[in-house]
Design brief:
The structure holds two protein chains of two kinds.
Chain A lengths: L2 H19 L3 H7 L9 H11 L5 H17 L24 H19 L8 H13 L15 H9 L3 H8 L25
Chain B lengths: L2 E10 L3 H13 L4 E4 L11 H11 L45 H5 L9 H15 L27 H10 L7 E2 L33 H10 L3 E4 L2 E8 L6 E8 L2 E15 L2 H11 L21 E12 L13 E3 L16 E6 L17 H12 L2 E11 L6 E9 L5 E6 L4 H24 L3 E15 L25 E3 L14 H16 L6
Parallel strand pairs in B: 1-2, 1-7, 2-4, 7-15
Antiparallel strand pairs in B: 3-9, 5-6, 6-7, 8-11, 8-14, 9-10, 10-11, 12-13
Helix pairs in contact in B: 1-6, 1-10, 4-10
The chains are: A mainly alpha, B alpha/beta.
Chain lengths: 197, 531
């Protein structure tokens, strides 16, 4: 496959697979059950350094990126999702978004090489930011989606991170630690400050 | 070959009412109890942390396969069909109805009175609270129903956020207090204290929230009940020449060609608001051509529930969403009006919320936000707090609010499926616009009182905490069963829990369903020697 053909192929995949990911469970039968889900570590870390706040520090960014990879590795399509009151409908997790995201990261590298002559991870933060901004400007989502619903890998990573207790604590500069096991009596107290605040 | 199981009491269904009724019967009476459940058993407590994490991370159901395939019905129904039923993923919210609920015809000229008073049910409310382990505090006398004893557990403490929201809410002149909940504020009956995992619904990973599996596990371990899962009761048969129920005809889902019969002295149908009336309708015979217990045509009728109006209100308060988002403030002030020019009763609850303060990737001007810009925007949005407010309001059912047999849809076994169609009574329908407008105005007043603004408001068309279909009455003209759940047509057939509710009140109804079941247990137990 020539470089141009490969580029065209990846661009097609990068736009087509997320569309499958956003579809229903039936689509996932052909969408990504057996497809590789691991994202290129170096490019993903560079993406994390681009879209996540510096205030996290390099350790926090690495934790977020590793957590996202772990999340993706544990993803299972076509699993029944929570159903509750007010509906008789059953729904299922969508196709694995990993293959589409992996292709998007490859496209980032191709674009970076084409425009700047280097891999995405080797670009300056300004260059990387400009590339991601251009991509997200085409996305409709104002709010961060659940990661599995994210059409773009940057939104997937952000969508994953903002749901973590670490992100909530960073925003509020307080040790809220949502969704974690904590003493009941302490809920009456104002959450204490985080170590860095 | 037909397999026959004999017992004194055959309970059909294993939800929360069935569990606590079985517990009471087994403690007080010498009776062999067999319980039949169409669904599967549920994962044990030891697996629930893992299931919860999958639910949080991926949205996966923490109760996998808790429904029967091929049971998609026409109408809204909650699909859970498993040991413990819907109460496996309930929120553990346990208010009582107020005395007015049982006398709305007498007090307000609306709907129907129940064939019992609050005072008659009160001891069973207390018993239900003690069996589940409810943590709560009594509200002010004018705003909360009376109680004869304290709650079995101290209330769940208000969160820091709710402490800030309480004085705001009370500016409208209504008192608020900690929502009574079947969640442990102290260790209780071998179950752990709540540790704010904040996923009570759909799953508590530590067992601090009461769910019926705890009762079933204890009863099974003590040999006090025999519980058969994956066994679907298809119809009830009468003794030849008598109106007594002889046996239940069932099949095991793994061996559908081998029928199972449950013979018992007493039958208790505890299969919830859809499947209980459905079973009676599906059991039509020559003498009861429209279904058992249906001489007066009331089986499946008067299906009830309550709708709600809710809003998110932004307030100039620094809140910290995530402290314990499922806990709430509650007021029953508006459930207890003395006189009304127009009928409107509702509850009122307040929660912390992160709505309006979430992170986003694009600002109001359309600029993409990344990194520190995203964080700065998020922090700015989080400077103000958000309260979620919701009012359930009383919806009175029409006689034609009904479960019927669907002439077109069949189960995998060839039985007609239910069709569910809700309908407000004419008087309730006429008040709907006024009711919802009044509640919206209330929320606007609340917003104004706190110098806040409403960012969204909605009306849920769905009727929550559904009940009815086998409602109790003073006689067969007004109900399917009496105030103990005994059907008027069949002396050894009892209906319990949600289906027997005359009306749905305007607050969460599970505690009331259980209290009704416990009261029925006293009557059911009379047939058997005391222990």
């Amino acid at each position: 496959m020539s470089a141009l053909d490969r580029r065209r192929f990846l661009k097609t995949v990068a736009t087509a697979v997320p569309a499958v990911a956003a579809g229903n469970a039936a689509a996932c039968a052909t969408g990504g059950i057996s497809a590789p889900a691991h994202l290129d570590d170096r490019t993903l870390l560079a993406l994390g350094e681009t879209v996540l706040p510096d205030e996290l520090g390099s350790g926090g960014i690495q934790r977020a990126v590793r957590g996202f990879q772990t999340w993706l590795a544990g993803y299972r399509p076509a699993v029944e999702v929570t159903h509750g009151y007010g509906t008789g409908n059953l729904d299922y997790t969508p196709a694995n978004p990993g293959p589409g995201w992996a292709a998007q990261l490859e496209v980032l590298n191709l674009e970076a090489e084409e425009r700047f002559g280097a891999a995405f991870a080797a670009l300056s933060k300004e260059q990387r930011t400009e590339m991601i901004r251009r991509q997200l400007a085409r996305e409709r989502a104002d709010r961060l989606p659940d990661p599995a619903q994210a059409r773009n890998v940057a939104l997937g990573l952000l969508g994953y991170w903002v749901q973590t207790p670490e992100a909530v604590n960073l925003c509020y500069q307080a040790r809220i630690d949502p969704l974690t096991c904590r003493p009941l009596a302490a809920q009456a107290e104002k959450p204490g400050p985080t170590s860095g605040s | 070959m037909t397999r026959v199981l004999e017992s004194d009491v055959c309970i059909i269904g294993s939800g929360i009412t069935a569990a606590l009724l079985a517990e009471k019967l087994s403690e007080e009476r010498e009776a062999k109890i067999v319980v039949v459940e169409a669904g599967d058993d549920v994962p044990p407590l030891s697996q629930r942390s893992r299931l919860r994490q999958r639910s949080l991370d991926y949205g996966e159901s923490p109760w996998p396969r808790d429904h029967l395939d091929g049971y998609e019905v026409d109408g809204i129904q909650s699909r859970s069909m498993c040991v413990g039923g819907l109460a496996m993923h309930w929120g553990g919210v346990t208010p009582r109805f107020t005395p007015e609920d049982f006398r709305i015809k007498s007090l307000y000229g609306m709907g129907d009175d129940w064939p019992m008073s609050y005072e008659e049910l009160e001891p069973f409310y207390q018993e239900a609270e003690e069996r589940m382990g409810v943590a709560g505090e009594q509200g002010p006398p004018d705003a909360d129903g009376p109680r004869s004893k304290p709650y079995p557990q101290p209330p769940l403490p208000l969160t820091y956020n709710l402490e800030l929201l309480k004085p705001w809410g009370e500016k409208i002149g209504a008192p608020f207090w900690s929502q009574p909940s079947a969640k442990n504020s102290v260790p209780y009956r071998g179950r752990a204290v709540c540790c704010r995992n904040d996923t009570c619904s759909p799953i508590c990973p530590v067992g601090a929230k009461y769910s019926p599996d705890f009762t079933w596990n204890a009863l099974k371990a003590a040999g006090k009940v025999e519980l058969l899962t994956r066994t679907l009761v298809r119809r009830l048969e009468l003794v030849r020449g008598s109106d007594r129920v002889s046996h239940a005809v069932a099949l095991h889902r793994d061996r559908p060609s081998e029928p199972v019969e449950f013979h018992a002295k007493t039958f208790v149908v505890a299969a919830g608001y859809v499947w209980s009336p459905h079973l009676l309708l599906a059991s039509a015979t020559g003498r009861f051509p429209t279904g058992l217990a249906n001489r007066t045509g009331l089986v499946g009728r008067y299906m009830n529930g309550h709708r709600n109006v809710s809003a998110f209100i932004r307030l100039p308060l620094r809140l910290y969403p995530g402290v314990n988002g499922q806990h709430s403030l509650m007021s029953h002030q508006f459930m207890r009006p003395s006189r009304l020019a127009k009928y409107l009763r509702h509850d009122l609850r307040i929660w912390e919320s992160s709505v309006g303060g979430e992170p986003r990737v694009r600002d109001d001007a359309g600029n993409v936000l990344l990194g520190k810009e995203l964080l700065a925007d998020w922090r700015k949005r989080a400077e103000r707090g958000t309260a979620r407010v919701r009012a359930y309001y009383d919806v009175l059912p029409h006689r034609d609010s009904a479960v019927t047999l669907d002439p077109y849809r069949k189960s995998p076994w060839g039985d007609p499926l239910p069709r569910i169609s809700y309908r407000d009574s004419d008087e309730s329908a006429a008040l709907r616009g006024y009711t919802e407008d009044t509640l919206k105005q209330l929320f606007q007043r609340m917003a104004k009182a706190g110098d806040g603004e409403i960012i969204s408001m909605r009306v849920d068309d769905f009727q929550d905490h559904p009940g009815g279909g086998c409602r109790m009455g003073v006689d067969a003209r007004t109900g399917v069963c009496d105030r103990f759940g005994r059907t008027f047509d069949h002396e050894n057939l009892f209906m319990v829990g949600a289906p027997t509710a005359v009306t749905a009140s305007c607050c969460n109804a599970t505690l009331t369903f259980v209290a009704l079941g416990l009261r029925a247990a006293t009557e059911i137990g009379r047939e058997f020697p005391a222990l």
